[in-house]
Design a protein that fits this description.
alpha+beta; Alkaline Phosphatase, subunit A; 7-stranded mixed β-sheet; 7-stranded antiparallel β-sheet
């Protein structure tokens, strides 16, 4: 137990401790009011609020517990139907947001996945017990260096890189995907280096201004560093206030507000506690302007969620789909271990979706799919043979097959070849037009996941109310979870103020182009 103590301390600091251990921001340190003259070119501030959802947002506003969000909503355009990425897990969504691509191009498959090149499981932080088994050093390497500088495909460009070409500056505050053209040094706290083999510094590439908790920050007086090593909302908002107060905010800033996610996971999707708390932070930002309206005169504000959460049944035995148990006839790779010759499959559970990998020639993907099909809590199972994606469901007869290109069109001007039982993915065909039901932009999002990585694997999606568990994955019975392609996990709110410029397609993957169009004319 003593040997495990450093790992436990580091893991708690990095991923899950939401108790407030830092002092409140003192009034004496309040930033000076920003200037309110208009700028020659637009400045856009994108606030990404983890697990922000329409119904609790509206409820908090109606109960007058979210005046800042009510202010933005009153003065802006609003939709509750912005389509997220897939899997609906933060790192994949973040990569889609800043690259404008799904995982088939960004190559960030999920929060936890199997690296076919390294023959081992890779995680970006899916719970304390998974991190302890994989190793804190590998986890830290992933979040400090790996997924921005290695895993995120070099064949796609980020919004920060594109803005740099346009000679525009940008900032990233507490967003985990931030790759840019400027070199930065992330400094690991001495407390961690003393109890681990982590280096004192990591080199990374980011935008002109990069803030990531205690590892790097713009405001040297930002004292919100204890709670989750500065990966908290108070730290992030203080960084934004600093840039605004000093009048040095660049043309584009993305700020990630994370703590609402933890509240929803614990209390379920109907809670407004997290929204009340984050709204107080937004009030702090608005209060540094002489009048709240001045914020609208000078900046375009875009406020979005990243994914919804759907309620998970309270009774664990019913709620949790144990893939190890269903697939117990196979030899399953253990967390933290390299793949051995006799290992047959790998399971990586991303809450309400999962990847199941075939890593032994003796195993049949179709047989795995047939086994999974017997669990009534699983909505559908998909796999790829050559270039054709096959989808089956225990609730429907037959198979649905599709591929990109073809004679069928959807509302996003994407073309597809399709065959079989379209009801498996709740598709409706009218002549050659595809209409989506429970799975918005389902073909492109599933195509993205199926082409996100090398190797033979299945994508498994849960019905609302249920969640997958693997060897040591977190579970949220009685609370909320996301990950699936279902609309209950996928449709998120967006508020846009300061512009009447329309968004052609309401998808998170389209926001990058919409933002760049302000300067790329």
């Amino acid at each position: 137990m003593i040997r495990l103590l450093p790992f436990i301390v580091i893991s708690i600091l990095l991923i899950g401790c939401t108790s407030s251990g830092n002092k409140a921001y003192e009034q004496g340190n309040k930033a000076s009011a920003i200037q309110t003259e208009s700028h020659s070119s637009p400045k856009i501030i994108l606030l990404v609020i983890d697990s922000l959802m329409d119904e609790p947002l509206k409820k908090a506003i109606q109960e007058k517990k979210a005046p800042a969000l009510a202010f933005f909503l009153k003065h802006g355009q609003y939709s509750k139907n912005l389509v997220s990425s897939y899997p609906t897990m933060s790192v994949t969504i973040d990569s889609s947001l800043i690259t404008g691509t799904y995982p088939d191009k960004s190559k960030i498959p999920g929060l936890i996945w199997f690296n076919n090149d390294k023959k081992q499981i890779s995680t970006y932080g899916n719970g304390l017990f998974e991190i302890m088994k994989i190793g804190v050093s590998q986890f830290a390497e992933n979040i400090m260096h790996q997924y921005n500088n290695v895993d995120l495909s070099p064949n796609v460009s980020t919004i920060h890189e594109d803005l740099n070409i346009l000679k525009k500056e940008s900032a990233s505050i507490n967003a985990f995907i931030y790759r840019g053209n400027y070199q930065h040094t992330l400094k690991v706290p001495k407390l961690i280096t003393k109890v681990s083999n982590l280096p004192e510094e990591y080199e990374t590439a980011g935008p002109k201004m990069l803030s990531l908790g205690t590892f790097i920050h713009q405001d040297k007086k930002n004292n919100h560093l204890v709670n989750r090593l500065g990966l908290n909302d108070a730290f992030a908002v203080q960084e934004l206030k600093y840039l605004l107060g000093k009048n040095i905010i660049p043309e584009f800033t993305i700020l990630y507000i994370s703590e609402n996610d933890f509240t929803v996971h614990r209390n379920g999707p109907n809670t407004i506690k997290g929204i009340e708390k984050l709204d107080k932070h937004l009030q702090e930002v608005l209060n540094i302007f002489p009048k709240w309206e001045d914020a609208l005169n000078n900046y375009i504000w875009v406020i979005i969620g990243d994914s919804k959460q759907s309620p998970v049944i309270e009774r664990k035995k019913d709620a949790l789909i144990d893939l190890k148990e269903i697939l117990s006839q196979y030899r399953i790779l253990k967390l933290g271990k390299p793949a051995a010759k006799d290992d047959e499959i790998v399971i990586t559970a991303n809450e309400r979706m999962a990847y199941v990998y075939k890593i032994n020639e003796s195993v049949s993907v179709r047989n795995i799919a047939s086994k999974l099909k017997t669990d009534h809590r699983i909505a559908w199972i998909a796999w790829k043979e050559k270039e054709i994606i096959h989808v089956i469901s225990g609730d429907h007869e037959g198979t649905f097959n599709f591929n990109s290109g073809g004679t069928y069109n959807d509302i996003y001007n994407q073309t597809w070849s399709i065959k079989g039982n379209t009801s498996i993915l709740d598709l409706t065909l009218k002549n050659k037009d595809i209409h989506y039901g429970d799975y918005p932009d389902g073909l492109a999002r599933l195509y993205g996941a199926m082409h996100s990585q090398e190797g033979e694997f299945l994508v498994v999606d849960a019905k609302p109310g249920y969640e997958f568990i693997g060897e040591s994955s977190p579970e949220h019975s009685g609370g909320g979870a996301h990950g699936s392609m279902h609309k209950d996990d996928s449709l998120i709110p967006i508020i846009v103020t300061g512009t009447n410029k329309s968004i052609d397609q309401l998808r998170i993957v389209d926001l990058k182009k919409w933002i760049l169009d302000y300067w790329n004319y």
